Amino acid sequence: MKTIVLLLMAAAVISISGSTSIAYAAEGDAAASSDSLKILGAGLAFGLAAFGAGIGLGQVGAAGLAVISENPALQSKVFIFVGMVESIAIYGIVMMFIILGQ
């Protein structure tokens, strides 16, 4: 629980500092503001996807270890579930590259 609170506090600090830099960029050049919003969006896309995948992987990994300890023959099925959870982070990377490529 402490980790989640610390991550939310860090996200708030980053968003506050990001909004001040966006305000300064609006005074100068509109293209710089657009680029900074792209970078912010790409970072959020990947960061939130990786955060969600990490939480899911913790849950699936713990349950998977329990299943493997009960019945080692189910190891391949556990790896399939772990791969499905890890694919969420891969989708985040793909979205990051799509956002930065525009």
UniProtKB/TrEMBL annotation:
GO CC aspect terms: proton-transporting V-type ATPase, V0 domain
SUPFAM superfamilies xrefs: F1F0 ATP synthase subunit C (SSF81333)
Main location group: membrane
Subcellular location(s) of the protein: Membrane
Topology of this chain in the membrane: Multi-pass membrane protein
InterPro entries documented for this protein: ATP_synth_F0_csu_sf, ATPase_proteolipid_c-like_dom, ATPase_proteolipid_csu, F/V-ATP_Csub_sf
UniProt domain V-ATPase proteolipid subunit C-like: residue ranges: 40-99
Transport keyword on record: yes
Residues passing through the membrane, by range: 41-66, 78-100
Keyword vocabulary terms for this entry: Ion transport, Membrane, Transmembrane, Transmembrane helix, Transport
Coiled coil region boundaries: none
Classification via Pfam families: ATP-synt_C
A GO molecular-function descriptor: proton-transporting ATPase activity, rotational mechanism
Family: Belongs to the V-ATPase proteolipid subunit family.
Protein name according to UniProt: H+transporting two-sector ATPase C subunit
Organism: Nitrosopumilus maritimus (strain SCM1)
Origin organism lineage: Archaea, Nitrososphaerota, Nitrososphaeria, Nitrosopumilales, Nitrosopumilaceae
